[in-house]
Amino acid sequence: MPAPTPVVQFGTSRFLQAHADLFFSEGTPEGAITVVQSSGDPSRAGRLGALAAPGGYPVLIRGIEEGAVVDEERRVHSVKRTLSTASDWAELSRIVTEEAEVILSNTGDAGYDPKPADTAAAPEQAMSYPAKLFHLLKARHAAGKAPLTIFPMELIPDNGHVLKARVLDIAAQQGADSALTGWLGTCIWANSLVDRIVSAPLDPVGAVAEPYALWAIEAQPGLDAPVTHPSVRMVDSLETIERLKLHILNLGHTAMAAYWQQAGAAPDAIVRDLLEGPVGDRLARVMEEEVIPGFAARGMEEEARAYLAVTLERFANPFLDHRIADIAQNHPQKIERRIAAFLSWVRAAQPGFAAPALDAICAAAVPA
Question: Which one of 88, 103, 173, 328 is most buried, counting C-beta atoms within 10 A?
């Protein structure tokens, strides 16, 4: 029988392969993971089998870090076992009940959406991830085991609070008694934010990723970092990191897309190439004249300048062919969330804050 795996991970994506799985392999103590495919997609069976190969799998780190080109291979050995919720439920329930200390997940933007099957009394493959998680935790509670620490990694604000609320809603629908709901409440549901560009998969498993990586976890009583690693940070609040990511990295991408559209540049233009021309010049000006002063109005100039320097290195990654046309998808919605929201946030602290270039991008996105 394989050695116990204190970490149970829902999701097999290349992002997780080059993010949490790599951190557990490199960190202290080295983690032992059971990876769970929750979709039941048979086309990914080859990936699932290769994740736990005895020799590990490769992650290629390629990009620019502190001005130097990085191009290196690392190997991930933390994945010890792989299962599918479609075919291995009994074994998965045993592992969550007997071995697990930590559960982590990255199930996609729609992973928390309710499904009709969520109301079924017994586990079903068609259930949403929160419903499957409820049934696994219910079995652990019935066995008299201790509560777990749960680390959702989906890109949802307050993802720990949101997942906890979904699981408790399902518990109520299932008629769970007060003992079970109380036990669920004593599990630790961590809010976290993750960031790393994972640009390509490797065959049959592995990934190509940039040097920059972050797993920021919001502190709360009783919560410890799941692994000690330079990319894993415990923080008092995620708001600062969320603002930096949304209003520098994401805003920068959206501003570049706006300038690219205005310039009528090539439809297959790449972000790093645009940095070297008029689009990059306009981006540099709006960052220096409007974005950094906006963060300064919120008392965050030092953090913003440091994050901007790292962001520009990420944009210039010579190994990443990041098409601006992909970034420009859903452009009006991105302007609202990344640029208009930034201006509202800044002007709440400094009414009348001048940002003519950003205001012009917002105005151009409003239908005539």
Answer: 103
For the domain 239-364, what is the CATH superfamily, name and number? N-(1-d-carboxylethyl)-l-norvaline Dehydrogenase; domain 2 (1.10.1040.10)
Distance between CA atoms of 243 and 344, rounded to whole angstroms?
Answer: 13
pLDDT computed for residue 16 by the predictor: 97
The two tokens of residue 2 are 């394989």
pLDDT at 290: 98
pLDDT on residue 365:
84
Low-confidence ranges of the chain (pLDDT < 70): 1, 43-45, 109, 265, 367-368
Complete DSSP assignment for 292-323: HHHHHHTT-HHHHHHHHHHHHHHHT-TT---B
The pLDDT assigned to 367 comes to 67
Instruction: Identify the pLDDT of residue 110.
Output: 78
Calpha distance 168→187 (Å, rounded) = 12
Domain boundaries, the chain: 7-235, 239-364
CA distance 290 to 365: 19
Tell me whether residue 177 is exposed, middle or buried, using C-beta atoms within 10 angstroms of its C-beta: 0 to 12, 13 to 18, 19 or more.
exposed
The answer to whether 204 touches 187, Cβ cutoff 8 Å, is: no
Q: What is the pLDDT of residue 123?
A: 96
* Structure-token match 């452009």, residue found: 331
Distance between first and last Cα of the chain: 66
